[in-house]
Amino acid sequence: MSIDRLDEVRAARAAAGRLHEELPRTGAMSAGVYELPAAGDDPQTPHALDERYFVIWGRATFACGPDVREVTVGDAIFVEAGDHHRFVDIVEDLSLLVVFAPPAPG
Question: The pTM is what?
Answer without folding.
Answer: 0.93
